[in-house]
Please model this.
Amino acid sequence: MGPKQSLKKGFIMTKISFASHPFLLGFEQLDRLVERTAKSGNEGYPPYNIEQSSSTAYRITLAVAGFSDDDLSITLEDSQLVIRGRQVDNSEGQVFLHHGIAARQFQRSFVLADGVEVAGANLENGLLHVDLQRSVPNAIVQNIEINKK
Model:
């Protein structure tokens, strides 16, 4: 089997790439972003919502009960919004009859399109809200001269 092929239930599956289409030129970076996002290992924790509040605004909400703002970090790394949570387990010396609330760490990643920026973030009642704003690009028409030889 060649690269980007896999065998699943007796069938050979070939990965289709955006960059391989003849009408889409220069989209190799988009291919890399999609592949990186698929490999980012986002598990089910913490649960989150993504809502569109207007045609140019979005909000990501993560359920981070038990985390303080000092336990959370939000970074933008190469068009990828990364939200991390690190809690310290301070239960040493305590006697639990049931210990169902564990200190956990997490990392959630979201790929942002060009022109989408983080407008702000706030922590409220155990919910972390990250507001995003998309700028509307100006339509540009450009005439290209044909050089005569």
In short: The mean pLDDT is 83. The chain has two domains: 1-39, 42-134. DSSP finds one helix and nine strands in the chain. The radius of gyration is 22 Å.
